[in-house]
Amino acid sequence: MTSPFVKLGFAVACFLFVGMMDHDKPSVPAQVVALDECDPATFNAANAAGPGFCKNVALGASTQFSTLFTEAQGGNPDRKWDFEPDTLTVDEGTPIIAVDQGGEPHTFTEVAQFGGGFIGGLNGPNETTVPECAGGFSRVEVARTRILQGSQRQVTGLSKGEHLFQCCIHPWMRMKVEVK
Ligand SMILES: [Cu+2]
């Protein structure tokens, strides 16, 4: 026979446990995916980005290195270089995880205003480098926002309101996080 005190103790423990769950409710991260369609043959040529730069294993990844630059400079960048979703609405405290599922490096960088990245040849006409991307990977502030093939970056502590993120390499990769 179980003593009333044991029963009471069990009831109190359950109550505390439920109370803890309520207060420490874990935030499920929201995922953003970085996509691209780099063509390994032209991207990894010695006079382009170099061997091993593009590790795209996606079927049909066929945008050639020079085409990416030509289209970007013409103001018609390749839309297969993309963050998905374009807009994410989350509750305050929700971590954002940006995952690079493309074949080449990207950055997931918060900016005050969308604009150009740090590789001039990939910026649109009259588009200048935004301050958050200036200096490229030689600045630790930019380098720490980098995501390599298959790697991810977690962003936490976003305040309520609107936050803009872009890639500092391919500046047409843009998305918005709305924190409620
Ligand atoms: Cu990118």
Would you write up a description of this structure?
By secondary structure, this protein is an alpha+beta fold. It contains 4 helices and 10 strands. The chain has a 4-stranded mixed sheet with strand order 2-1-4-8, with no helix packed on it. Strands 3-10-9-6 form a 4-stranded mixed sheet, with no helix packed on it. Strands 5-7 form a two-stranded antiparallel sheet. The termini are far apart. Copper (II) ion (CU) binds at residues 81, 106, 167, 169-170, 173. Copper (II) ion binds at residues 81, 106, 167, 169-170, 173.
Assign an overall shape. elongated
In whole angstroms, the N-to-C terminal distance is 52 Å
Under the CATH scheme, the architecture is: Sandwich
The secondary structure category is alpha+beta
Number of domains: 1
Report the helical percentage: 10-25%
Biggest sheet overview: 4 strands, mixed
Strand order of the largest sheet: 2-1-4-8
The number of strands is 10
Mean pLDDT metric: 90
Quick summary of this structure?
The chain is α+β, with helices and mostly antiparallel strands. Helix content is 21%, strand content 23%.
Provide the descriptors you would attach to this structure in a database record:
180 residues, alpha+beta, Immunoglobulin-like, four-stranded mixed beta sheet, 4 helices, 10 strands
